[in-house]
Specification:
Blueprint (H helix, E strand, L loop, with lengths): L2 H21 L6 H14 L11 H5 L2 H21 L18 H38 L1 H6 L2 H20 L20 H16 L34 H22 L4
Helix pairs in contact: 1-2, 1-5, 1-8, 1-9, 2-5, 2-8, 5-7, 5-8
Length: 263
Amino acid sequence: MMGPAHSLSGAAAWLGVGAATAAAGCPMPWPVLVVGALISAGAALAPDLDHKSATISRAFGPLSRTVCGVVDTISHAVYKATKMRGDSQRNGGHRTLTHTWVWAVLVGGGMSLLAVQGGRWAVLGILFVHMVLAIEGLLWRAARVSSDVLVWLLGAATAWILAGVLDQPGNGAGWLFTEPGQEYLWLGLPIVLGALVHDIGDALTVSGCPILWPIPIGRKRWYPLGPPKAMRFRAGSWVELKVLMPAFMLLGGIGALGALGYI
């Protein structure tokens, strides 16, 4: 799928989690719901770090383009080192390492650890990166015609404001993990969710997605999971634009209402 659809699906997924926790009698504080949805929307772009033409490659100028090139090289090397006889030959690393559950868990866990160990500035850094990505994904039309600096300033301001709100008592810095020193440990959860939702979205396209790596399936370690080929679509097709994106917006709205106790 394309960047905007990925971001919408990430936000909708976290809002759905918020509705589920509310139904279970453990509602999220509203700042956690909002911040988690934005982080998940941004994190849903991150698996495309292995693609030099993806939305994330443009998000931070030359820095993100360089990172994408490095990740593509590493991903391709891991693919070649771990592929089995049934896996095809590849010229690049797109839809390999960063499109697996292993990557999602490692990145999410790493961000949680960074948030806990690094203090306020680490939290602000995590929020800034994901707010910029959320803007690039959710407001992609405006972001395309705006300067990068304007997007970065908006991301920085949003991160600063949201961190201040979360830091207020009862607003969610210590949500879910309540022991002293565990503030913001939950930040990795929307990152994991966003990455996994990205992978599921890509699995619906014609190429599929090797989400389960390194678990071998048949003669392949990089088995491209997906529905029957007749049910798949091409990225950017009318199915994505006219069906899936409106569906994600509708489901996100329903999830938000449920999370806030209106339904």
